Amino acid sequence: xxxxxxxxxxxxxxxxxxxxxxxxxxxxxxxxxxxxxxxxxxxxxxxxxxxxxxxxxxxxxxxxxxxxxxxxxxxxxxxxxxxxxxxxxxxxxxxxxxxxxxxxxxxxxxxxxxxxxxxxxxxxxxxxxxxxxxxxxxxxxxxxxxxxxxxxxxxxxxxxxxxxxxxxxxxxxxxxxxxxxxxxxxxxxxxxxxxxxxxxxxxxxxxxxxxxxxxxxxxxxxxxxxxxxxxxxxxxxxxxxxxxxxxxxxxxxxxxxxx
Length: 259
Known about the structure:
Blueprint: E1 6-14, E2 18-25, E3 33-34, H1 38-45, H2 50-71, H3 92-107, H4 109-115, E4 119-123, H5 129-144, E5 148-152, H6 153-162, H7 172-180, E6 184-190, H8 197-212, E7 217-221, H9 225-232, H10 234-241, E8 247-250
Helix pairs in contact: 1-2, 3-5, 8-10, 9-10
Keywords: ATP-binding, Nucleotide-binding
InterPro entries: IstB_ATP-bd, P-loop_NTPase
Protein name: ATP-binding protein
């Protein structure tokens, strides 16, 4: 699991508790903050003054949310990607449709999670698929208290292959388990791998494991639906589309550099 990085440490002094090691912790949105005196924070959370305790619990909640967002693996480039700042001005009609489908999926994730409903984001390079995939993941973490994880097809295959080494730190079972349990898994760059039977089987196992557990999966690919079937196999695509899992189409020219 990815944890917030400690950017810096310093010896600080608290008027009540004396010296302590202060830590500057990585923030998902870039505004790193010093944690302050841990004993003061503990005392505040358990204060008999409800206003003090509430403020301290809010700080604790914000820190946990920050940790959950960072552990999602959403790349720094896409941490600012939200449903609200996705631009629909270059191809307003189809882009608005894609945004609406992703927003509906994110806002009703509690319902979709119960049904194990997955989603496919398919289409041209540079059309904002990763932006919206990461935006959905961030939304379900922030607003549904869900655990989401972003990864790529190549990263999954690389991690599985790494287990074949005699010095491997993880087993193949452990790799698949880490991909099985997030409430939402976003798999990007489907189709950029070599397309071998081994790769197809690895990705099918990830998708099928989650399908059997009613765990939603979002796949992102530059392929169309026919190309995706060739890449992943019919069985995997059928599981992704089961129960009405939508295929959101991004059929307009790249806006990379403009979006």
